[in-house]
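Lay summary. Proteins are chains of building blocks that fold into shapes, and those shapes determine what they do. In this project we predict the shape from the chain. Here is one chain we studied, written as its sequence of building blocks.
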Amino acid sequence: MAKMTFIPKERLKNVRIQRGYKQSEFAERVAMDQSQYSRRETGKVAITDEEWERFARALGVDKEEIVETEPRVINIVNNSNNKGNSINAFEITIKAPNHFFDDINKKMDFIIDKFNSAQQ
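And here is the predicted shape, written in a compact code that computers can read:
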């Protein structure tokens, strides 16, 4: 099972709090549902470049003051064989820049397209 984790955006949160905004108030200011904003601030959802720009404008700061480009993490865990029996477990953790995972996704899409074409 693979799992990606994003790092909470502490710089964004700190500046929001310094400017006196509750999370719900700031979400409204940037025209976003509070739960959607919360997912971005806590790192559960990636923040797009456009959103970083919008957040910076709403806070009255340069984007560089709030942007955090922490690497994403992927954990690969295997604890069973093809028959579902338990075997020696292993876990691999990879930390890499965001573009690393974008490149992997593009390559996987290419492989899947080739596989689907071959099946037809």
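What the prediction tells us: The first helix runs from residue 10 to 18.
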